[in-house]
């Protein structure tokens, strides 16, 4: 092998490494998987903040009919992105990103007041291990879906939002199937991907100590915000800051 060939090969390799590093650091796609009981509209303020910083934000409006359906819905959105994405999950959305995050085009995971399951765990398993303060979940008449009593919605889900906003969220909530909440995670993406966790210290939908325990187990970078479960809507600036920081670090 002659010297010129070796030099050419080395230069080509160095160029490819530099190109890859530049690409890897450029995580501009933010894919948000909303939780159960609230649609994606509550993410509008955080989305506008992120987009003003040059990020491309998409919110998954998954059906919450089963975990498999919701992972598939998330993957359809990921397929539309140009380049790597940061996955963000709120509440039940944490179950979804834990499975969907195994894709090679997912650079990292952000759990916002979310469930962060290990292999073989369901939402029901985690919630029952440290029951939350709020206990106003109801069943639909057919026994297949769950919802939060609208009269308790503000207190249990969005206590730090203005009453009109909390009232609208209560009236536009998305019912969740029991099947989705009973599904067990197979392969947690946080075992191989960088992760960040926002703990809502006044959360009445997920016990804050459970959020802390799940984050510690996963080795996530943790930020605590004095907020209700609807932290993404009541503290959009702080949540957007965490997501933006995660996008920068996940790319490296």
From TrEMBL:
It comes from the Bacteria. Keywords: Plasmid, Signal. Pfam families: Abhydrolase_6. SUPFAM superfamilies: alpha/beta-Hydrolases. The keyword Signal applies. The keyword Signal applies. This is AB hydrolase-1 domain-containing protein. Residues 30-241 form the AB hydrolase-1 domain. PANTHER family: AB HYDROLASE-1 DOMAIN-CONTAINING PROTEIN-RELATED, ESTERASE_LIPASE_THIOESTERASE DOMAIN-CONTAINING PROTEIN. Residues 1-24 form the signal peptide. It comes from Sinorhizobium medicae (strain WSM419).
């Amino acid at each position: 092998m002659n010297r010129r060939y070796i030099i050419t090969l080395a230069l080509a390799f160095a160029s490819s490494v530099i190109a890859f590093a530049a690409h890897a650091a450029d995580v501009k796609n933010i894919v948000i998987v909303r939780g159960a009981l609230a649609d994606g509209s509550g993410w509008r303020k955080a989305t506008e903040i992120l987009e003003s910083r040059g990020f491309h934000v998409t919110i998954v409006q998954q059906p919450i009919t089963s975990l498999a359906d919701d992972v598939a819905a998330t993957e359809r959105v990921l397929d539309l992105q140009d380049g790597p994405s940061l996955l963000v999950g709120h509440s039940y959305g944490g179950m979804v990103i834990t499975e969907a995050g195994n894709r090679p085009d997912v650079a990292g995971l952000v759990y916002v007041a979310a469930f962060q399951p290990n292999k073989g765990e369901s939402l029901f398993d985690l919630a029952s291990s440290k029951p939350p303060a709020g206990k106003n979940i109801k069943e639909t008449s057919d026994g297949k879906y769950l919802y939060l009593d609208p009269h308790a919605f503000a207190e249990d889900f969005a206590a730090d939002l203005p009453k009109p906003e909390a009232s609208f969220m209560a009236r536009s909530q998305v019912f969740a199937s029991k099947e989705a909440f009973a599904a067990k995670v197979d392969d947690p993406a946080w075992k191989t991907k960088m992760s960040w966790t926002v703990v809502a210290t006044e959360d009445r939908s997920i016990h804050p100590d459970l959020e802390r325990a799940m984050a510690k187990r996963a080795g996530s970078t943790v930020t605590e915000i004095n907020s209700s479960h609807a932290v993404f809507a009541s503290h959009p600036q702080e949540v957007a800051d965490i997501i933006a920081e995660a996008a920068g670090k996940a790319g490296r």
